Amino acid sequence: MERFSALVLDFLRDSRGATALEYGFIAFFISIAAIATIRQIGPLLDTKYASILPGLQ
């Protein structure tokens, strides 16, 4: 029983999982920001390329 208690305490003190979770949240929020930016810029780029295309043909 003493060994089990020691294992539980070691598990609760371990912070490696918390660090991985933090990096996961950071990646999630960066991807949300990137998607929002691309959705805003996409139509503007489409209009710009549509105006350039006749000059290339």
Sequence-ordered SSE layout with sheet pairings:
Layout: H1 2-13, H2 16-56
Describe it.
The structure is a single chain. This protein is an all-alpha fold. The protein is 93% helix and 0% strand. It has 2 helices and no strands. The longest helix has 41 residues. The model has no long low-confidence stretch (mean pLDDT 88). It comes from Bosea eneae. Keywords: Membrane, Transmembrane, Transmembrane helix.
Which key features would you list for this structure?
single chain; 57 residues; mainly alpha; 2 helices; rod-shaped; Flp_Fap
Could you provide a short overview of the structure?
This protein has 57 residues and is mostly helical. The protein has two helices and no strands. The protein has helices at residues 2-13, 16-56.
Shape: rod-shaped
What's the story with the biggest beta sheet?
none
The string of secondary-structure elements, in order, is HH
Structural class: mainly alpha
Strand content: under 5%
Helix content: over 70%
Mean pLDDT: 88
- Total count of strands: 0
Low-confidence sequence ranges: none
Backbone CA Rg: 25 Å
Contiguous helical run count: 2
Distance between the termini: 80 Å
